[in-house]
Amino acid sequence: MLRRSVVLTGRIVVVALIFLSAFSADAAARAATRVPRYPVLGVYVGSGQSAKVGQFTRLVRVRPTYVMEFTDSTSWATISDPSWQLERWKGTPYTMIWGVSMLPTSGATLATGATGAYDAYYRTLAANFVAAGAAGAVIRLGWEFNGTSFTWAAAGQSAAFVAYWQHVVTAMRAVPGARFTFVWDPNIGGDLPLAAYYPGNAFVDAIGMDVYDSEWQTYPGATAEFAKLTNEPNGLSWLASFASLHGKPIQIPEWGLGWGPSAPGSGPITVKGSEVSGGDNPTFVSLMSSWMTANHVTEATYWDYGTSAVSNTTNTKTLQALRTALVPIASGTPGVTRTSGGSGDGPLVLVAAAVVVAAVGAGLWSFRRSWRSPGRHSITAR
């Protein structure tokens, strides 16, 4: 009888432990989704890399509201039908921000777009967004148009750029079910007269600017660099004034660390003919976060990719600065939400633990009674 009781007790304990393990795993999984959500935070982790958003969330301990993706500029077909990207973000809980190309890599111009010749491609794109459940996406049309990196570089073509932008917005808004937010989004700095490229309040929902901790040849140090980013022509102060003038909310569709050589402690560095930066720069994160809070930025997408990516082994000072900047704000800001299921896990785990305790107790009681029994097959009740 002793052997049978011990075996029975062992089975009860094993079942109870499995029960406890299952609830613990379930609680852990739900705990991951109960990370505070920061309404302003967005992130770019790479095209189609939805799993990496979870990694970023665990690292910064705040869940982003927005995730950024881009259309493929290879051709009009890839611009108007981003089905590969849409499939990879399907079913995720994020509001999508889309960098939408204004032109493919070759064979098209802003001037032709200004005639309405490309409107059909954008009606198709809008219909594909609506069909995929992205009718409320944020659209960064022709982002960084004041630079030289993209085929829609608009320097010297302000009239064509404005007219083309208006055509695209009108075409996309006309699709049934569409409720997109259109962000006008130059890069920080430069000497282009940005106001001449503004499409007008009726065609813009938010005004943005991309900001990186990077300079050409000479980086003056973290604090001095942020002062430059703030005060230079087409800098952050210009952005705040221009958005206020037009009564539009501010967004920072891209912000992150720079690239190229850097000095220890994000100090000054000069390298001829090269981009330079502050490297792993917590000062930039802290100052940028303070500026965004003071200026009521409604969305800010951290570039968690390439030289700006954070991990437990890479850009660790920046990671800690992100945690410091984001978590207290998220925890104490009205409107920050947690997903359902929070307090309910505790009682379930306690129930599972109680089962284990009861099983062990029952086993000991059975063992004690068997050991005290006068006969091999009998139990004397006491």
Essential attributes:
382 residues, alpha/beta, TIM Barrel, eight-stranded parallel barrel, 10 strands, disordered N terminus, disordered C terminus
Structure description:
It is a single chain. With 382 residues, this protein is an alpha/beta fold. It has two domains: 1-34 and 346-382; 36-332, TIM Barrel (Alpha-Beta Barrel). Helix content is 44%, strand content 17%. The chain contains twelve helices and ten strands.
Brief write-up:
Helices cover 44% and strands 17% of the residues. The protein is an alpha/beta fold and 382 residues long. Strand 1, helix 2 (50-60) and strand 2 form a beta-alpha-beta unit.
The value of Rg in angstroms is 28 Å
Please indicate the count of domains. 2
Treating each run of at least 4 consecutive H or I residues as one helix, how many helices? 12
Number of strands: 10
Question: What structural category do the secondary elements indicate?
Answer: alpha/beta
CATH class of the largest domain: Alpha Beta
Largest sheet: 8 strands, parallel, barrel
